[in-house]
C-alpha cells in the first residue's frame, strides 16, 4: 500500500511559516501583507474559493480586501480597478478569480496586473523569470506541489517525471520547476500518443488534466510517486462504478450523496501500485491557498 501524501498537513506547515513571517513584519513595525481579491459575477465555485481564501488570510494575519463586481462589468471597468490596485501602496498582492464571466478577457486582465503584485504568478514577466530559473512570483499550485515533494524527501535529480497537462497555470510551470530540480521531464497532453505507456515510464507522475479517474492503476509504474492535481465532480453512476471500483467507501459516499469529488487518478488503484499518492480532496487543493499566501508575504516583503 502506498503512503498518502497529506496535503492538508503540509498546507498547515506552509501557513504556519506565513503566519510567522507576518508576525516578524509586525514586530519590525511594518503593516500586515494585504491581498486584494477581485471576484466578478456569481460563479458558485468561485465564491467558495474566495471564501476559503479569506478564511486562510484571517488565520495567518494577512489582510484580505475583496472587490466584488457584477457579471456584466465592462472590461474597461475591470481594467480600471486593476490599475487602481496596482498603484495602491496598501495592496501587496492582486488575484483576479477565474473563470471570468463571458465577455471579459482573462488574459487581458491577468497581463494588466503589476508583476510585483502578481501573486498567482500568471503574468508573462513572472512566467519568463521561471523559464530562466530566476526568482519571482511563481504559480501557486505547482510551487506548493514542489514544496510537498521536498518535504517528503522525494529526490528529483535524474528522476523520470511525466506531467499530464500543459496549462499555463499548472502543467507547464510544474514541468519547468521539475526540470530546474534536474528531473528528466516529459509533458503529455490530450494529443499524446499511447498515454498509458508514457505514464508507465514515470517515477513521478503529476496529473493536471481535469478528467475524473483518467489515470488507471495499470498506467502507473510500480513504486512511482503520484501527485494528483485534478479536482473533478463526478455525478455519473456508471463512471463512479468504474473509477471507484477499488474504493468501496467512496462509492458508498457517491451512492448516498449522488456526487463526489475526485482527482484525475483512480486513487484506490494507485494506492495498490504507487509508493506515494496525494488524495483528492485533501491533497493538492489545500496546498494552493497556502502557496498563494506564501506569495503574498513574498510580494509584501519585496516591496517593504
Ligand atoms: P486546463 O483545462 O487548462 O488544462 C488541462 C490539460 O489537460 C490540457 O493541457 C490538455 O491538453 C490536457 N488534457 C485534457 N484532456 C486530456 C486527456 N484526455 N488526456 C491527456 N491530457 C489531457 O486545466 P488546468 O487549469 O491545468 O487544471 C487541470 C485540473 O487541475 C482541473 O481538474 C482543475 O480543476 C485542477 N486544478 C486544481 C488546482 C488545485 O488547487 N488542486 C489548481 C488548479 C487546477
Automatic annotation (TrEMBL):
CDD domains in alphabetical order: NAD_bind_m-THF_DH_Cyclohyd
Assigned keywords, A-Z: Amino-acid biosynthesis, Histidine biosynthesis, Hydrolase, Methionine biosynthesis, Multifunctional enzyme, NADP, One-carbon metabolism, Oxidoreductase, Purine biosynthesis
Residue stretches spanning the membrane: none
Catalytic reactions on record: (6R)-5,10-methylene-5,6,7,8-tetrahydrofolate + NADP(+) = (6R)-5,10-methenyltetrahydrofolate + NADPH; (6R)-5,10-methenyltetrahydrofolate + H2O = (6R)-10-formyltetrahydrofolate + H(+)
Gene name in the database record: folD
One Pfam entry name: THF_DHG_CYH_C
SUPFAM superfamilies xrefs: Aminoacid dehydrogenase-like, N-terminal domain (SSF53223), NAD(P)-binding Rossmann-fold domains (SSF51735)
InterPro entries membership: Aminoacid_DH-like_N_sf, NAD(P)-bd_dom_sf, THF_DH/CycHdrlase, THF_DH/CycHdrlase_cat_dom, THF_DH/CycHdrlase_NAD-bd_dom
Protein name: Bifunctional protein FolD
HAMAP family: THF_DHG_CYH (MF_01576)
Domain Tetrahydrofolate dehydrogenase/cyclohydrolase catalytic: start-end pairs: 5-120
Sequence positions that bind NADP(+): 165-167, 231
